[in-house]
Write a structure and sequence with these properties.
With about 575 residues, the chain is an alpha+beta fold. It has 18 helices and 15 strands. Strands 9, 10, 11, 12, 13, 14 and 15 form a 7-stranded antiparallel sheet that branches. A 6-stranded mixed sheet has the order 3-6-5-4-7-8. A two-stranded antiparallel sheet has the order 1-2. A hairpin with a 6-residue loop joins strand 13 and strand 14 (about 545-570).
């Protein structure tokens, strides 16, 4: 439980400094500083400072930033967990929460521009016994409205929360994770709200022109409402680099979050997909038969599709949701694959599995599909049935299916588009030997990279000769052999000692097996499978041992805050299978 809460807080904090919060920053800033006296006019100056009508009003103003963020946390938490269930139970339009949020934001903006309107809105509460209307009391209501409009970037934590809520499996762990994520994600917003409050008190311009500042705040809120209605902020967000994406995956991609996500699937159906791992070293695998498209509400751009009907074609299934900035960044690459290889037998099916209640609306999905220029079939997976059938855990996620209907590869998250294209080409050539394919695409991958970082190093029969350190025992492929380390292992090279068996996709440890690696990276990882232990010695401190168990999975070996050049020596239990080193 405490691990989930910590991950939720950290994941929320990372989201809170990502491009996702940009649209609400100006509103939160002005909301934290907007203030008025009881009659709606700017307060007079006394002794060089602003005198609020009463100390009580001053304290209320000081609490306003906390009220705004408190309302945001509450509405985001409640409606993320219960929004879809409430809308279905009351038979309301799928877009109702978003509409309510836009109305609240617009009304608050208008009330800042038109003081009589503000007094009219407060009038129903003025007769409450012994409770004079708080002149700064609109903050909590504004926060409630913002919570309905706040759409963070999707990551493993938010995926776990959304799928649990969609399946009605809301337990103590899910609630704790949601609350901690909401608090973490809004903490940076609280800083902006407090900054707005402080500036409004201490900067002379704001003190002297409080009415004008309130009017500016009202205009900002109205402009944001219009921009959100037309989904304009996403145009800015998609142009910005996803500078928090890698950190988000590292923090949120824990075993605890993975187990919580998988626990929402309900049964062990399609468990064969667990035989493959995310990205799987960029290789085609046999991941079992492809699940069917199930409980699809509607199809866009095509008649209903089935995996049985698509046999004979290579299929890319892309899970996405239209408000997810990560998904929006990946769509141009999916479209490029479709246009480039459709004539050669590639079919793309976009499965739109909603993250928020307003994304259930068919009209919204159709508008987004048109806006993004998507022409391939799109399935509206409002019940998350197909998402669960694929045992998916992420937005975006792409699955490659060969012409016989077998899943051969999947990639969670953004990036590695050239690798996906290479695998598409392999599957098309397998389906139609001798097919003349067009040249590969050249859309840039905008993920931040450091040229000095060591490239992924495979321990397979075909790739190992390219990265094997000179001076070591010559490689013996497809049979067990005894190796000895060379005098030196350069950066980006590996060497063996002890007994190893190297086959077409991995190297299997025997008696006394060791592997030595030269690298430059912030973190080093190794994909391992089997049962046993790995002892890690890097020359910078005491060695440590990690336990390996089960099917191929990524294990973290080292982590440093800055780029580091070093050397690792790993001692592996007999029988462990090593696939590839990866670096960040």
């Amino acid at each position: 439980m405490w691990t989930l809460i910590l991950i939720g807080l950290l994941g929320g904090l990372i989201t809170g400094v990502s491009p996702c919060i940009l649209p609400v920053l100006p509103v939160v800033f002005f909301a934290g500083g907007a203030k008025k006296t009881a009659d709606g006019e700017p307060p007079p100056e006394q002794d060089g400072g602003v005198a609020l009508a009463t100390r009580k009003q001053q304290r209320a103003h000081n609490r306003r930033p906390y009220a705004v963020i408190g309302g945001l946390v509450l509405s985001f938490t409640v409606f993320t967990l219960l929004g879809s269930l409430l809308i279905k139970a009351l038979n309301l339009p799928d877009d109702i929460l978003r509409i309510v949020g836009l109305v609240v934001l617009s009304v608050v903006g208008l009330s800042l521009l038109i003081p009589p309107l503000e007094r009219l809105l407060e009038k129903p509460f003025s007769k409450l016994p012994q409770r004079k209307v708080n002149p700064n009391g609109g903050g909590f209501g504004l926060g409630l409205g913002l919570g309905l409009l706040y759409v963070p970037c999707a990551g493993p934590v938010l995926t776990a929360i959304t799928i649990a809520a969609a399946n009605g499996k809301i337990g103590v762990e899910t609630v704790a994770l949601t609350v901690s994520f909401a608090i973490g994600a809004t903490a940076p917003l609280l800083v902006f709200a407090l900054a707005g409050a402080k500036i409004s008190e201490r900067v002379k311009f704001f003190r002297k022109n409080n009415g004008k500042v309130r009017a500016i705040g009202g205009v900002v809120m109205l402009l944001l409402a219009v921009a959100l209605y037309f989904d304009l902020p996403s145009l800015l967000q998609t142009k910005l680099p996803n500078y928090t994406g890698a950190l988000q995956e590292k923090v949120e991609g824990s075993d605890a979050i993975s187990k919580l996500r998988l626990s929402t699937l309900g049964d062990a159906s399609n468990q064969a997909l667990d035989k493959c791992a995310n990205n799987d070293q960029g290789q085609l695998r046999d991941c079992g038969p492809t699940p069917e498209f199930e409980n699809i509400d509607a199809w866009i751009n095509s008649s209903p599709q089935t995996m049985a009907g698509l046999k004979g074609k290579v299929v890319l299934v892309d899970f996405w949701t239209y408000s997810c900035i990560n998904c929006q960044r990946s769509i141009p690459h999916i479209k490029d694959l479709y246009s480039r290889y459709q004539a050669d037998g590639l079919e793309v099916v976009g499965v739109h599995t909603p993250e928020f209640a307003f994304e259930h609306d068919k009209g919204n999905v159709e508008a987004a599909t048109k806006k993004f220029g998507i022409t391939y079939p799109v399935a509206i997976d409002n019940e998350t049935s197909t998402f669960n059938n694929f045992r998916n855990q992420y937005w975006p996620a792409r699955y490659l299916i060969d012409a016989t209907g077998q899943v051969r590869y999947f990639k969670l998250g953004e990036g590695d588009y050239d690798q996906t294209e290479n695998l598409v080409r392999q599957l098309l050539q397998q389906a139609k030997p001798g097919v003349a394919l067009p040249a590969p695409g050249d859309l840039p991958d905008t993920r931040p990279t450091d040229e000095r970082t060591t490239r992924e190093t495979y321990l397979s029969r075909g790739e190992l000769p390219k990265t094997y350190a000179p001076g070591g025992t010559p490689l013996a492929l497809e049979k067990e052999a005894t190796y000895a380390f060379p005098p030196a292992v350069p950066d980006g090279k590996v060497a063996f000692a002890g007994n190893w068996t190297i086959d077409y996709e991995k190297s299997t440890a025997g008696a006394g097996a060791e592997v030595r690696l030269g690298y430059t990276a912030r973190s080093t990882n190794l994909v391992l499978a089997g049962e046993g232990t790995v002892t890690i010695a890097n020359g910078d401190g005491p060695s440590r041992t990690i336990k390996v168990s089960g099917t191929p999975n990524l294990y973290r070996l080292t982590q440093t805050p800055d780029l580091h050049t070093g050397q690792l020596t790993l001692t592996l239990s007999p029988g462990l299978q090593a696939y590839s080193f990866t670096f960040d």
